[in-house]
Amino acid sequence: MQTTLNVKGMTCGHCESAVKGALEEIKGVSKVKVHLDSGKVDVKYKEGKVSLEDMREAIEDQGYDVES
Ligand code: 9UX
Fold first, then answer.
1. Is 7 in the pocket of ligand 1 (CB under 6 A)?
2. Using a 6 Å cutoff on CB, does residue 68 contact ligand 1?
3. Residue 27 in contact with ligand 1 by CB distance below 6 A
4. What's the distance, Cα to Cα, between the start and end of the chain in Å?
5. Which sequence spans correspond to the domains of the chain?
6. 3-state class (DSSP) for residue 30
7. Which CATH number fits domain 2-67: 3.40.50.720, 3.40.50.1820, 3.30.70.100, 3.40.980.20?
8. What is the DSSP secondary-structure string of 40-59?
9. pTM of the entire structure?
10. ipTM for the complex?
11. Which atom of ligand 1 is nearest to the CA of 13?
12. pLDDT tens readout for residues 4-44
């Protein structure tokens, strides 16, 4: 499965690393690509192993907002 999340508040490379790292720590997430310019985050994941809510929480824990 693949999804694209819209994340608000990422402006620098550290933001990118924080969001990417937090998502990659989740079991079931296989690939994360952050687009700093647009705030879009492409995520490849295994369906059933991880939910969109898990991803949202991981990003919010880092201090960023996810728009649905
Ligand atoms: Mo630097 Mo990115 O303060 O939020 S980590 S802009």
1. no
2. no
3. no
4. 17
5. 2-67
6. strand
7. 3.30.70.100
8. EEEEEE-BTTB-HHHHHHHH
9. 0.95
10. 0.85
11. 2
12. 999 999 999 999 999 999 999 999 999 999 999 999 999 99
